[in-house]
Amino acid sequence: MRKESLAFLKEIVNTPSPSGYEMRAAEVYRKYTSKFADEVYTDVLGNTYAVLNPSAKRKIMLAGHMDEIGLAIHYISDEGLCYFQGIGGHDSVIPIGQRVWVHTGAGRMVPGVIGRKAIHLLTQDERTKKPELHDLWIDIGARTRDEALKKISLGDVATYQWEFQSLGGDVATARGFDNKMGSFIVAEALRLVAESKSSKTVGVVAVATVQEEIGLRGARTAAAALGAEVGIAVDVTHATDYPSVDKRKDGDLKMGAGPVVCRGANVNHVVYQMIVDAAREDKIAYQVEVEPGGTGTDANAMQIAGPGMATGLLGVPIRYMHTPVEMLNLKDVENCAKLMAGFCKRVTAKTDFTPRPL
Fold first, then answer.
1. DSSP string computed for 233-266
2. Whole-angstrom Cα distance, residue 238 to residue 85?
3. Start and end residues for every CATH 2.40.30.40 domain found in the chain
């Protein structure tokens, strides 16, 4: 991966952006894409758009959400302990013992730790049960509620104190790969299309969407606003190349074996075939994931926005999703952007995406 691209990936992944609080990641995205996009802007929900050929009648929407899971403080006890709710999906065993940053409205980051009653003090019954999020708290070192409120406010959000780290070779781990990696991919795909000097008859809009983790909200409004006939979303998907995963139920996807192309009801047949053809012609290794119904990704919202959109869905297989140590292969990320760009370059003003008999 080129040096400038890797620096952008690290910066956007490390920038905290829980759902509804994506503003700092949007700044990173605007700064990077403004170097090659014809237009860059942000809407009132927070979606950030980088556009090539804005006057073209046919538009391709590319979507990668830039929000991540987080925690929202909703109660502070008399002892100054901060109780929280999850933003997005959390496994409640993960937060215990983690260090966090509480992000205040004043722009400060307040350090804290997530506490629970020590194992020595747990009853035998408590030891056998999985804790709930409401059994945990964030301790910022305050002794009273008033002391805590001098540092933070109700509604402040928190993220884990974990950042991008290389594990050797092309493998890396980070807190926010899901799915700021996707925002990186749509930006890189746009850059590659811009540098290829492709036809001006097709516009490409790379959208860093918001609030995916709490209901695909940004993709729904962005798709309605753009009115694009065709679009591709990109998100993380589950690598199944480690023990305890049943491939009979979850498929066979490996880190490092290439980007994932989804096939199923959420994916337009013409778009799927064009993506596969682009992969073969451009010699990009790929994997296929089958999803017979909805996917729970931005592609789901895009497909049924307004009169409907011909959608595709690409993915990068990661391990340990929705934890502070999400893991992926950087080659998969790089090749996913190349594959997305390859698709865009093959779309013309006359491409017909109407489904036909197989």
1. EEEEEE---STT--HHHH----TTS--EEEEETT
2. 25
3. 70-160
How far apart are the C-alpha atoms of 91 and 334, rounded to whole Å?
Answer: 29
Q: CB–CB of 60/203 below 8 Å?
A: yes
Of 58, 24, 26, which is closest to residue 41 (Cα–Cα)?
A: 26
Confidence of residue 70 (pLDDT cuts 50, 70, 90): very high
Write the class of the CATH domain 70-160.
Answer: mainly beta
- Residues marked active site are found at 212
pLDDT in tens, 119-148: 999 999 989 999 999 999 999 999 999 999
The pLDDT tens digits of the residues spanning 175-186 come to 999 999 999 999
Which CATH architecture does the domain made up of 3-68+175-346 adopt?
3-Layer(aba) Sandwich (3.40)
User: Could you identify the residue written with the tokens 């850059």?
Assistant: 191
